[in-house]
Design brief:
Helix content is 5%, strand content 53%. The protein is built from 1 helix and 6 strands; from the N terminus they run H-E-E-E-E-E-E. Strands 1, 2, 3, 4, 5 and 6 form a 6-stranded antiparallel sheet that branches.
Length: 81
């Protein structure tokens, strides 16, 4: 439960709700997709899971928005800020 409280559900997360670090989606759908953007909408990373296999991502310090759909939940890996 503590790990889930530090993660993200599908949706759009911005501002102070973003915590830099490594995350994984343990059981995404085959339609899982995600995107991290920085200042002025600059793309910092994106990806998908067309296979439904576990997916990993890094939310960098410069992130301003994180959006995911079809991934269910993102759980932190190791220490997060």
């Amino acid at each position: 439960m503590d790990e889930a409280a530090l993660g993200y559900a599908d949706g759009t997360h911005t501002g102070a709700r973003l915590r830099p670090g490594r995350y994984h989606a343990p059981s995404p759908t085959k339609d899982c997709s995600w995107q991290v953007t920085g200042a002025k909408g600059k793309a910092l990373g994106s990806g998908s899971s067309a296979t439904g296999e576990r997916v990993e991502l890094t939310v960098p310090e410069a992130a301003r928005t994180f959006t995911s759909t079809g991934c269910y939940a993102w759980l932190p890996e190791g220490e997060t800020s």
